[in-house]
């Protein structure tokens, strides 16, 4: 199996780790395969702060409103669900990273800075062929905004 660092995607936006299934056929050619992730649901203990954060990054509400305990936000064909929970229900350890592919990483970064958000670093070109920057939302969820820069 190939070593995978941040992200490797095929032309359809699905992860492709350069390996075959146990049947010997490439995973991307099997019937019943996952084609893409459409939405992620994230827990938040502070809905107003989380809503402000995601709206600052260009997401818009498509279900619920600022007083709801469950809100769906969208940007392009990507959906983020925010589910309000008690602080004790939030993850206490790092669980992974959600990666959003965008058409212009630097523009999303500038939007974040203009809104007073605090990305970890400026956008950079990574050895795995993406330009990206990382940021945490108000509930501590680790996010990355990325764009493929080479084949």
Give the % helix: 10-25%
List the uncertain runs: 1-21
The CATH class of the largest domain is: Alpha Beta
Rg measurement, Å: 17 Å
Category by helix and strand content: alpha/beta
Q: Oligomeric form of this entry? A: single chain
**Termini separation (Å)?**
20 Å
User: Quick check: average pLDDT?
Assistant: 82
Spatial strand arrangement across the major sheet: 1-4-3-2
Put simply, the count of helices is 2
Could you say what the CATH topology of the largest domain is called?
A: 2,3-Dihydroxybiphenyl 1,2-Dioxygenase, domain 1
* Shape summary: globular
Number of strands: 8
Number of domains: 2
Sequence of secondary-structure elements: EHEEEEHEEE
The largest sheet is:
4 strands, mixed
Short descriptors:
8 strands, alpha/beta, four-stranded mixed beta sheet, 2 domains, 2 helices, globular, 13% helix, 2,3-Dihydroxybiphenyl 1,2-Dioxygenase, domain 1
Task: Provide a brief overview of the structure.
This protein is of the alpha/beta class and 151 residues long. It is built from 2 helices and 8 strands, in the order βαββββαβββ.
Please characterize this protein's 3D structure.
By secondary structure, this protein is an alpha/beta fold. The protein has two domains: 35 residues, no CATH class; 112 residues, 2,3-Dihydroxybiphenyl 1,2-Dioxygenase, domain 1, CATH 3.10.180. Helix content is 13%, strand content 29%. The chain contains two helices and eight strands. The strands form two sheets. It has a four-stranded mixed beta sheet, covered by helices on one side. Strands 5-8-7-6 form a four-stranded mixed beta sheet. A hairpin with a 4-residue loop joins strand 6 and strand 7. The relative contact order is 0.18. The N terminus is likely disordered.
């Amino acid at each position: 199996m190939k070593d995978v660092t941040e992200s490797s995607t095929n032309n359809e936006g699905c992860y492709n780790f350069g390996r075959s299934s146990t049947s010997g056929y490439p995973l991307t050619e099997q019937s019943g395969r996952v084609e893409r992730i459409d939405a992620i649901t994230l827990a938040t203990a502070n809905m107003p702060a989380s809503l402000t954060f995601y709206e600052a990054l260009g997401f818009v509400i498509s279900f619920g409103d600022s007083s709801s305990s469950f809100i769906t936000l969208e940007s392009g064909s990507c959906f983020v669900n925010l589910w309000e929970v008690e602080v004790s229900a939030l993850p206490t350890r790092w669980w992974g990273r959600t990666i959003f592919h965008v058409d212009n990483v630097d523009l999303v970064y500038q939007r974040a800075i203009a809104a007073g958000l605090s990305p970890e670093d400026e956008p950079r070109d990574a050895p795995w062929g993406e330009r990206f920057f990382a940021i945490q939302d108000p509930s501590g969820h680790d996010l990355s905004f990325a764009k493929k820069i080479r084949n």
